[in-house]
Description:
- The protein has 160 residues and is α+β, with helices and mostly antiparallel strands.
- The chain has one domain.
- It has three helices and five strands.
- It has helices at residues 3-17, 60-76, 125-141, and strands at 21-31, 34-47, 84-88, 106-115, 144-145.
- Helix 1 packs across helix 2 (60-76).
- It is globular.
Amino acid sequence: xxxVENNTKSLTDLVRxxxxxxxxxxxxxxxxxxxxxxxxxxxxxxxxxxxVEHPSPGCDHCLxxxxxxxTIAEGVLPQEYRPSRSDLxxxxxxxxxxxxxxxxxxxxxxxxxxxxxxxxRPVDECETRCLKEMKQxxxxxGAREGRWAPIAGNKVGNxx
Length: 160
């Protein structure tokens, strides 16, 4: 198996192990007192392994999830130079619960997609293309939009 295939398998394994899903929201800025969409926030959500009981914010288990999300994020970012940029968010040492994901204990990594120069400019084709490519790559790795759902035949994880 080649390096690309090994990397894809490794990322796919992380997606399953930490039951990764994602959501997109617009990134806004106020320009001359006008609210303008200037990019996108792509948030990756991962949860603790099934054997972890009672995780606490910032624990070693949370850090494992965050490092896995970083690895996945780096694997889906565009590799070539573009007029847009994708910045990975910092570790907030928190556990997030959302009804959409069944109130599971999630760790979050945000990827901000904006213009490399002229941050306040409206979203254009480059940001849209980057987001589309990252979403497609996440889907190929088995991550789901909104809520984790295992792929048919997947024995790792559960439906939450």
